[in-house]
Write a structure and sequence with these properties.
heterodimer, A: alpha/beta, 9-stranded mixed beta sheet, 27% strand, elongated, B: 259 residues, alpha/beta, two-stranded antiparallel ribbon, binds flavin-adenine dinucleotide, binds adenosine monophosphate
Chain lengths: 319, 259
C-alpha cells in the first residue's frame, strides 16, 4: 500500500490540531498514513507520540529556522522534494490558510491538480466539496498528478489506531527565492482556554443583537458552559463587539460543529455561508421572521437578554 | 511604483449561485456579477500606496467579455488603466492554469507590487496569490491586514490563529489582503466619468505566448464529476418565549445530549 502524506497542522500551544488527526483517520482508509512535520526545531519529537496514536506509520520531519522563519515557500519546496522521492498515493493538508498556500505552491511545482475544502476523499481519489456557501455539493477529481487535497476541519471524527512511527529527518535545502518573505515578529495575543473556532464541536455566536462588546460576556458564558468556542457575525465584528478572527461567514471562518447557537443574528446569506453545514443549529432572535429560523433545528423567538441568562442558570442547575 | 491589482468578476454572493448543468463550471449567466468583494480592498490598498509613494495602478482581470463591466467599475475607483485577458479557450480553466495566465500577463506588465484579494467568493480557494508568486519567483505576503511601504521594503501584518505576524520582503512582491485592511472608497461621479476614457488593453492567449491546450478544459488539472444542490435544511421547532425560553432551549440541548 502506498504512503498517504498528511501534512501536520499544529500550533505551539495546543500541539497537533484536531484536523491533523482527522486527516490521519482519513488517510488510513486510503493507504499507509505518513505524517510530514514542517516546523521549528524539535517539532517532530514533540508531535510524534500523538501522530502515532492516530496511525502515523512514519513521520518525515523538516525542522529549523530555514523552515519556520519564512512564509510557506520553504515548506512547499521540502514537501515537493519528498513527494518526488517517495511518490505517495495522495497528499492531504488542512484547509487552513497555510495548508492551502503550501498546496498551491506544490501544485505549481509538480504541475499537479489541487482540490480545496474537501469534506471527504474516496479511495479512487474522488473528493467531496461543499461550495457556494455550502449550498452545492460537488464531487471532483484531480486529473493530473496525484490527489492533492486540503481537508476541511470537522469533516469526520478522528479515531485512534496506535502505531509507533519511525522519524526520518529530512535535509532542508531551500533556495534564496524561498526565503523572500521573512517573518520578523510573531505576536501571541492573549489566548483563552476555549477551543479553536474551526475545530470546536460547539460554537456559540453573537450578532448585532448582542448590542455591545461588554454584552458578549453573555455569549462567552454560554459557550464556556458548553465547552464551545465563541463566534461573531460580521455586523458584530464591524461594530467592534468582538475581534475579527472570530468572524463566522463568507469573509470569516467556516465552521461545521455538532452544535451552532446563533444569538441575535439575522442569518444573512453571507453568515450562513460559514455555518450552515453545522449538524444542529439553534437560534435566539426577537424577530420571528429572521431568516436564521429557516435553518434552525430549534429556535426561540424572544429577547436574548432574558433567554440566555435563564438558559445559563438552567444548565448550571442540571450539572 | 508600478502597481498591478488583480480583480476577478464573480457571481454576487448574496444571490443564489450554482454550477452549470452542461459543463459543471460556475454559472455566470443567470446571476448578477460583481467585483469579488475582497478585490475592492485590494484596489483601495493599491490606490493608497500610489498616493503615498507615487506611480501607476493597473487593473488586471482574466475573464469573459462581461468582466469588462467590473473592470470599468474598478477603474472608476481610481486606477489608471486596465488589462483584460480574454480568450474563448480559457473557459473551464483550473486554478493552476489561471495562475499561469495571470503570471504571464504580470510578467509582461513588469509589476513592482502586485496586490490581490486574499480569496475569491466563488472558488474560495485562496491559492492564486501563492501560485502566481511561485511562478514569478517573487515574495508572497498573504492575508495582510496592514501594509507599509518604505522604499523597496514591504512590511505586512497578518492575522494568525494565535495572534499576528509581521513579515517583510523587498519588491517585486505579491501582497494579498483581507477586508480588515482598509475601507474601500466609493467611486465618485467624476471617477465614473473618467473611467470611461481610461485605456483597457485586451490580451489573448497568443499575446501571452500560451497555447490553448494548456488552459481551459483541455489543460485542466482537475475536473468536476458531478454536483447537486444540498438538500435545504428544513426549519425545526420554533417556540416563542413565554418566560420559559431559556429552559426550553436547555431542554432541547439535553434531548440532543449537549448538556
Ligand atoms: C460580500 C459580503 C460578505 C459578507 N461576509 C460576512 C461574513 O463573513 N459573516 C457575516 O456574519 N456576515 C457577512 N456579511 C454581512 C451579512 O450580509 C449581514 O449583514 C450580517 O451577517 C448581519 O449580522 P447580524 O445578523 O449580526 O446583524 P443584523 O442583520 O442586524 O441582525 C441582528 C439580529 O439580532 C436580532 N436582535 C436584536 N436584538 C435582539 C435581542 N435583544 N434579542 C434577540 N435578538 C435580537 C434582530 O432581530 C436581528 O435579526 C457579508 C456581506 C457581504 C456583502
Ligand atoms: N481570473 C482572475 N482574474 C484576476 N484576478 C484573479 C482571478 N482569479 C483570482 N484572482 C485574484 O486572486 C485572488 C484570490 O483568488 P482565489 O485564489 O481564487 O481565491 C482574488 O481575490 C483575485 O484578486
Amino acid at each position: 500500500m502506498s504512503e498517504i502524506f498528511v501534512v501536520v497542522d499544529a500550533t505551539g500551544e495546543f500541539g497537533v490540531k484536531k484536523v491533523t488527526l482527522e486527516m490521519l483517520t482519513l488517510a488510513r482508509q486510503l493507504g499507509t498514513p505518513a505524517a510530514v512535520v514542517l516546523g521549528g526545531p524539535g517539532a517532530a519529537d514533540a508531535l510524534s507520540p500523538k501522530l502515532g496514536e492516530y496511525g502515523a506509520a512514519k513521520v518525515y520531519a523538516a525542522e529549523g529556522e530555514e523552515i519556520d522563519g519564512y512564509l510557506v515557500a520553504p515548506k512547499a519546496t521540502v514537501l515537493a522534494d519528498l513527494v518526488k522521492r517517495v511518490r505517495p498515493g495522495a497528499v492531504l493538508l488542512a484547509s487552513s490558510q497555510e495548508g492551502k498556500e503550501i498546496a498551491a505552491r506544490l501544485a505549481v511545482k509538480l504541475h499537479n491538480g489541487i482540490l480545496t475544502d474537501a469534506t471527504d476523499l474516496a479511495a479512487d481519489g474522488t473528493a467531496t466539496q461543499a461550495v457556494f456557501a455550502g449550498s452545492t455539493i460537488v464531487k471532483s477529481k484531480v486529473t493530473r498528478g496525484l490527489p492533492l487535497v486540503t481537508v476541511r476541519p470537522n469533516s469526520l471524527s478522528p479515531t485512534p489506531a496506535p502505531a509507533s512511527p519511525e522519524v526520518e529527518q529530512l535535509t532542508v535545502t531551500v533556495s534564496d527565492t524561498d526565503k523572500l518573505a521573512r517573518v520578523v515578529q510573531r505576536v501571541a495575543e492573549q489566548k483563552s482556554s476555549r477551543p479553536e473556532l474551526t475545530e470546536a464541536s460547539v460554537v456559540v455566536s453573537g450578532g448585532r443583537g448582542v448590542g455591545n462588546a461588554d454584552n458578549f460576556k453573555l455569549v462567552e458564558e454560554l459557550a464556556d458552559l458548553l465547552g464551545g468556542a465563541v463566534g461573531a457575525s460580521r455586523a458584530a465584528v464591524d461594530s467592534g463587539f468582538y475581534p475579527h478572527q472570530f468572524q463566522v461567514g463568507q469573509t470569516g471562518k467556516t465552521v461545521s460543529p455538532q452544535l451552532y447557537i446563533a444569538l441575535g443574528i439575522s442569518g444573512a446569506i453571507q453568515h450562513r455561508a460559514g455555518m450552515q453545514t453545522s449538524k444542529t443549529i439553534v437560534a435566539v432572535n426577537k424577530d420571528a421572521e429572521a431568516p436564521i429560523f429557516e435553518l434552525a433545528d430549534f429556535g426561540v423567538v424572544g429577547d436574548l437578554f432574558k433567554i440566555v441568562p435563564q438558559a445559563v442558570e438552567e444548565i448550571r442547575k442540571r450539572t | 511604483m508600478n502597481i498591478v491589482v488583480l480583480v476577478k468578476q464573480v457571481p454576487d454572493s448574496g444571490a443564489d449561485r450554482s454550477l452549470r448543468a452542461d459543463d459543471n463550471t460556475v454559472d455566470r449567466g443567470s446571476t448578477d456579477n460583481v467585483i469579488n468583494e475582497m478585490d475592492e480592498y485590494a484596489i483601495e490598498e493599491a490606490l493608497k500606496v500610489k498616493e503615498s509613494v507615487g506611480g501607476e495602478v493597473t487593473v488586471l482581470t482574466m475573464g469573459p467579455d462581461r468582466a469588462s463591466e467590473s473592470i470599468r467599475k474598478a477603474l472608476s475607483m481610481g486606477p489608471d488603466k486596465a488589462v483584460h485577458v480574454m480568450d474563448d479557450a480559457l473557459h473551464g480553466s483550473c486554478a493552476v492554469a489561471t495562475s499561469k495566465v495571470l503570471a504571464a500577463a504580470l510578467g509582461q506588465l513588469g509589476a513592482d507590487l502586485i496586490i490581490c484579494g486574499a480569496e475569491s467568493t466563488d472558488g474560495r480557494v485562496q491559492v492564486i496569490p501563492h501560485m502566481i508568486a511561485e511562478r514569478l519567483g517573487v515574495a508572497a505576503l498573504t492575508g495582510a491586514r496592514k501594509l507599509t511601504v518604505d522604499g523597496s521594503t514591504l512590511t505586512v501584518e497578518r492575522q494568525t490563529e494565535e495572534g499576528y505576524e509581521v513579515v517583510t520582503a523587498s519588491t517585486p512582491a505579491m501582497v494579498s489582503v483581507w477586508d480588515t485592511i482598509n475601507e474601500p472608497r466609493y467611486p465618485s461621479f467624476k471617477g465614473i466619468m473618467a473611467a470611461k476614457k481610461k485605456p483597457v488593453q485586451t490580451l489573448s492567449l497568443a499575446d501571452l505566448g500560451i497555447a490553448a491546450a494548456e488552459v481551459g478544459f483541455d489543460g485542466a488539472t482537475s475536473t468536476v464529476l458531478e454536483h447537486a444542490k444540498r438538500p435545504l435544511r428544513s426549519a425545526g421547532v420554533k417556540v416563542t418565549d413565554e418566560d420559559d425560553g431559556g429552559v426550553k432551549l436547555v431542554e432541547f440541548l439535553a434531548s440532543e445530549k449537549f448538556v
